[in-house]
Amino acid sequence: MEANVTVPALQQMKRDGQKSIGVVAWDFQLARVAEIAGVDFVVVGDSVGVNLLGHANPLEVTLDEMLVFCKAVRRAVSRALVICDTPFGPLQEGVDSAVSAAVRLVKEGGADMIKLDGAADFPQAVTAIARAGIPVMPQFGLTPQTALKYGLPYGAQNAPDAEATEAMTARLVEEARILEEAGASMLDLTNSGPVAGPEVVKAVSIPVIGGFGGGPWLDGRVRLAHTAIGYGAKWLDSETDTYANVAKASLEAFRALIADARAGRQIKG
Question: What domains sit in the chain, N to C, each tagged with a CATH number?
Answer without folding.
Answer: 7-228 (3.20.20.60)
